[in-house]
């Protein structure tokens, strides 16, 4: 199919821009719900490690559904569901906005023994991880939001209490409710669903002694048998498009698989003061400086990024959705050059559509 002007321009820019940044990148954009850009540049693959996009397309969506079902409120506390939790004041809302004061990460995988059996790993290891999180020393309040995997792992435990199901059963319900026509999934027991050559390689892992393909990059998720509430989903650009368009439809009140529109809009509204952090209920919002969606997206935009080089951003004011999948960690996790490229991609697309509307 012949490329549009936007696709041709973006492809040419990306061919230069990705050198020494990432092996390849897939970019899609939708304006008014209509596909306006679909490019793949460099060495691309059908499936990518979504990394922390798992937080919004699994955990946040499921927490939003539970909220819509009146199973928790913005005043609900962690101890309402985990009675032995060390902090009696911490709210669920603070976990979603990364303002709980919990540490950002801990190397739990060093304490765990991975059996690559989901029943053993999750049921046994989750209790060990909960015990490791449930310590006052993990609370390090700064008065600012601090992005925390620990908080989202806790949300997984809370979801289990809310629904009286294990995390895998909860995921299957979420997928069936929201994304039944996609291939997005976890690599359960750390076994890829498809041929490994279909997966974008991430990092050469010194712990697992291999270049990771179809096996989750995040070590803690790996130690849990490949599934967690903070990372672990794999999918294609088609999958990401379906998931992100569902978010757009929720906000417009037209989602086939939906919560109430007012609930979707509440979760997409700034939930904490800007001097504390740039968060809605689970979604990132643009920071004043160095926003990952670039400087042009409106202050009402929502999105999220993934450590491996993935992202989605939606600007409801301009009805613009931009999705990107890459495997920038293939050049090493300390490769930060993609952080500068990502906002540029959004600006190139935004500036292009503003010239024609």
Structure summary:
The chain has helices at residues 5-17, 53-68, 92-96, 118-133, 149-163, 167-178, 219-223, 237-252, 261-267, 337-354; strands spanning 24-31, 34-42, 48-49, 185-186, 204-205, 210-211, 233-235, 302-306, 310-315, 320-326. By secondary structure, it is an alpha+beta fold.
Distance between the termini: 24 Å
Shape: globular
Query: Which CATH class is shown?
Result: Alpha Beta
The major beta sheet can be summarized as:
5 strands, antiparallel
- Strands across the major sheet, in which order? 2-1-10-9-8
Mean pLDDT: 94
Helicity level, as a percent range? 25-40%
Uncertain runs:
none
Number of helices: 10
Tell me the domain tally.
1
Rounded to the nearest angstrom, the radius of gyration is 19 Å
Number of strands: 10
Fourth-tier CATH superfamily name: DD-peptidase/beta-lactamase superfamily
Order of helices and strands: HEEEHHHHHEEEHEHHEEEH
Q: What structural category characterises the helix and strand content?
A: alpha+beta
CATH architecture: 3-Layer(aba) Sandwich
According to CATH, the fold-level topology is Beta-lactamase
Percent in strands = 5-15%
């Amino acid at each position: 199919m012949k490329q549009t002007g936007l696709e041709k321009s973006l492809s040419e820019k990306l061919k230069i821009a990705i050198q020494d940044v990432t092996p390849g990148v897939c970019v899609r954009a939708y304006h008014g719900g209509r596909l306006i850009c679909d490019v793949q540049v460099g060495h691309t693959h059908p499936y990518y490690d979504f990394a922390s996009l798992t937080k919004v397309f699994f955990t946040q969506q499921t927490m939003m559904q539970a909220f819509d079902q009146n199973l928790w409120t913005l005043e609900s506390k962690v101890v309402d569901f985990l009675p032995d939790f060390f902090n009696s004041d911490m709210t669920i809302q603070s976990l979603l906005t990364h303002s709980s004061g919990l540490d950002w990460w801990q190397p739990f995988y060093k304490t765990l023994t991975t059996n690559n059996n989901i029943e053993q790993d999750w049921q046994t290891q989750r209790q060990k991880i909960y015990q490791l999180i449930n310590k006052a020393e993990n609370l390090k309040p700064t008065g600012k939001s601090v992005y925390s995997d620990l908080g989202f792992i806790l949300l997984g435990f809370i979801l289990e209490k809310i629904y009286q199901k294990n995390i895998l059963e909860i995921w299957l319900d979420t997928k069936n409710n929201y994304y039944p026509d996609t291939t997005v999934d976890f690599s359960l027991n750390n076994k890829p669903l498809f041929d490994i050559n279909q997966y974008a390689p991430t990092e050469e892992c010194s712990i697992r002694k291999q270049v990771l393909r179809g096996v989750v990059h995040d070590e803690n998720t790996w130690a849990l048998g490949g599934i967690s509430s903070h990372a672990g989903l794999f999918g294609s650009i088609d999958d990401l498009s379906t998931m992100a368009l569902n978010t757009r439809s929720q906000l417009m009140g037209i989602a086939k698989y939906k919560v109430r529109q007012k609930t979707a809009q509440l979760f997409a509204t700034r939930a904490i003061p800007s001097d504390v952090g740039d968060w809605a209920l689970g979604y990132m919002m643009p920071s004043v400086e160095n926003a990952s969606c670039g400087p042009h997206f409106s202050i009402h935009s929502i999105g999220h990024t993934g450590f491996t080089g993935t992202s989605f951003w939606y600007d409801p004011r301009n009805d613009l959705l931009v999705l990107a999948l890459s495997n920038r960690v293939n050049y090493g996790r300390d490769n930060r050059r993609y952080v500068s490229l990502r906002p540029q991609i959004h600006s190139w697309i935004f500036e292009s559509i503003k010239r024609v509307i």
